[in-house]
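Hi R.,

Here's the input for the flavin mononucleotide complex you asked about:
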Amino acid sequence: MRLRRCQFVMLELRERLGVDLQLLLADQPRLAFQTQWVALAAHLEHPVTLDAQEITVIGRLSASEWITLEEAGLQRDDAALAQLREKGLVFEATDSNAAHDADTRLRGCHWHGLAAVAHRHLRWSGVDSIAEQQRFAELFDGEPMAHLHDPPPPVFALGSAQPRVALPRAASSPLLDLLARRVTCRNFDQSRPLPQAAFAFVLDATFRALAQVEVTGVSVLKKGTPSAGGLHPTEAYLLIQNVEGVAPGLHHYHALDHALEPLQTLDAADVRRLASRLLAVQDYLADAPAIVVYVSRFERNFWKYRQHAKAYRAAILDVGHLSQTLYLAATERGLGAFFTAAVNEVDIEQAFGLDPMQQGVIGVGGFGRRGPTRHEIEFDPLHAVWPD
Ligand SMILES: Cc1cc2nc3c(=O)[nH]c(=O)nc-3n(C[C@H](O)[C@H](O)[C@H](O)COP(=O)(O)O)c2cc1C
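And here is the predicted structure with flavin mononucleotide in place:
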């Protein structure tokens, strides 16, 4: 029997509070705490608890080398070893199960361990963010903000004693005008389809590769938006609801061909339900006729930045840059756009068939025409979109 542990596992010391009966009976009511070791493994969907014996046993095994029971100083009938195998944290070389397969797949992707665990375990499934907000508001008598401390000031300054050197401002600029008109949209027009030309323009400006070039033997793309190492790991998966000439449903955008790759056609009601679920029930965003899921193809990024402490951050920043390009492209065409990180990543992965550690959801955006009336709040203090 040859054994190996999974590649990435972190132990978290968790605490649970409860009433201490002995203290209560002694008329000293106080909350008692209980601690518990929880293993967060990058290849497992859920955390698992570990006892002291299991922690000792897993600590004797290697993440990279298959070793024998004798080399690990373990007996074949060791109860803790059996539990670790049951929990999917330890494998025998011939094991064929979902946990072993997931661990094997992960090894080919060159994740940084901490980033891998964080990415796996911070995803949402089936969250209703609107209901959560309402619960939070009820908890604080409808005024949750009043219970928070004063916020830090919106502008940071070194201090009034510090001299400030005034800078010149441009009299006018098309870019500054465009930026001033960019307002996150939460009131999409649902009465008519988004024209195909406007839809295609936004994808072209944001995601299309302008050139493909060989650089020191590596094929890289040039796009209008910067990307760490020129790797452009972000893919655009699309949920189309109401775009002229495009079948409603799931698609992938091909960056070189500037073309859609249809994945699944859905009817209007199904696509709307799916949009709401993926967007954690933010229905004012789910009204957008075109929804873009920003997915990071980690293996592309981590192929160069192997086990790199900054690589996951770079992948997330990549999406932020693209989203701003999409906002500006939409604004230039007179459309509204949004971005949100409050999404049900697990539901999105299921819908598009993605392995979260290979192609991970970072956020969701969308765009379309604005409706004639404002039902939902938009932040437009300059009255760039709404007259009053
Ligand atoms: C990372 C990120 C996450 C956001 N998440 C949400 C969200 O969950 N729901 C939402 O309605 N807007 C979301 N927004 C939009 C912000 O609320 C919006 O940018 C902010 O209110 C300022 O308004 P403006 O974009 O019109 O200037 C998000 C924006 C960013 C950049």
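One thing worth noting: The chain has a mean pLDDT of 95.

Cheers,
M.
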